[in-house]
Amino acid sequence: MAGALVTPESSYILIGTVLVAHWTCAMSMVFINKALVSGRSPSADISLFIVWIQNLIGVALIQVMNLVTIIVGGTWERAKWDLSTLLHPDMIMSSVTFTGTLVFNNLMLKYISVAFYQVARSLTLIFVITLSMIILQEKITSRVVVASLFIVMGFYIGVDQEMLSTGVNPLGIMYAVIASLLAALCGIFFKRVQKKKMLSSVQLTFNNCLISSLGLTPLIFSTSQLNNFLYSSMSEDLTARMLLFLSGIMSLSMGWLSALQISLTSPLTHNISINAKSLFQTVLAVIWSGESRAWLWWLGNGLVMTGIATYTAHKLNPQTRASLNMDVEIQAPHPTNRNK
User: Under a CB-based contact definition with an 8 Å cutoff, are residues 35 and 44 in contact?
Assistant: First the structure.
């Protein structure tokens, strides 16, 4: 029942299910987007177009689900067109950073391999720590400093080794840093607007997709990215179109699952989950590509994960546990009480 408290056991099962589903969608999105921006995309850039079409598909699918709920009934909570919520500053900033993360993620994937994704995006946690100190006024302990040093050293070694082994384009590194910053900001604004407006994860996802698609529309035309797609062989490639549609479904699912995971835990937990997923994705990508990597490359990955593990252990300490929202009652993901 909406708004009812769930038992600790069922809440852990729910969080675990959301975690696995998010990992599946997130890893699928990386490989699909890599195929779209690299293997099948035209020579001209269509990174904005991909994000735009993914968000349009997300809006359309949510509206279809709303219609199905009206016709046949069901427990799906319908997303509403609430102008006051859509224009809320935190909602707008959440959508802007959400869109920016996706755009710069796609730009990054044009220049780096999937195997390097983990290290390239490892600075997300550094930005989370920094922004939490600046925005949330959180204190920085010695353990947090040590964890940050591990991550920064891992990032430096990883970038150095990737340049030596594959000659990665510096643009890819720059886009990765920007995407990491925006991802950290997105998590903070997500949590803030969810607390202030008491929005369900479905409503948050709908708002993000709608604001993102509307905001990107003028850019799609002004940058000629729509024409780049329409006048390329990709527009007539059935496989490419299927990948675009599938990426829209995955993007919607990932956005909803991200919002749900953040609402059930915290932005920090969400970012830790992302980094843990990236480690598994790194190993999978190396095995899939059949590439071999130098031991220093793996050391860089190991240092990044050591830093994340150190930070996680610190936050799971009883004295800092409350910062993860893990000792509070967990609400069902479809609250009925909202600020008007």
Answer: no
